[in-house]
Amino acid sequence: IAYKASPYNLSSSEYGYNVTVKYWMPFVYGQGLHDATWRPSFGGSIYRGNGSHGCVNCPYSTAAVLYKYVEEGFPVIVY
Q1: Bridge partners of 20?
Q2: What's the CA gap between 54 and 75, in Å, rounded?
Q3: Dist CA 5 CA 3 (whole Å)
Q4: Cβ atoms within 10 Å, residue 57
Q5: What DSSP state is assigned to residue 20?
Q6: How far apart are the first and last CA of the chain?
Q7: Which of 12, 41, 62, 74 could bond to 58 as cystine, CB 3.0-4.6 Å?
Q8: Residue 18 pLDDT > 90, yes or no?
Q9: Helical residues (DSSP H) of 1-79, grouped into ranges
């Protein structure tokens, strides 16, 4: 984790989004862990047609727990 921010605005003119998240925890090159309240579900095969642009989208409650416990320098392994 590079740092933490709450709230934080995520935006991209290339991909056409502009959204504020409550919990932002970037880990590499502008990608990070964050709440994604716009998603109706998580996991399974959602990534096949409705994935992210590199971030790890989390349910609000999961992002809140992670935000509470991780600190700058916390290792993140995306598998």
Answers
A1: 9
A2: 17
A3: 7
A4: 20
A5: E
A6: 16
A7: 62
A8: yes
A9: 47-50, 60-69
SS3 62: helix
d(CA 39, CA 30): 20
Cβ-based neighbour number of residue 26 at 10 Å: 19
Phi, psi for 7 (deg, rounded to 5): -75, 175
Q: What Cα–Cα distance (Å) separates residue 55 from each residue in 43, 52, 58, 60?
A: 13, 6, 9, 14
pTM of the model: 0.91
Three-state SS at 44: coil
Q: Which amino acid belongs to residue 49?
A: G
Q: What is the mean pLDDT of the chain?
A: 94
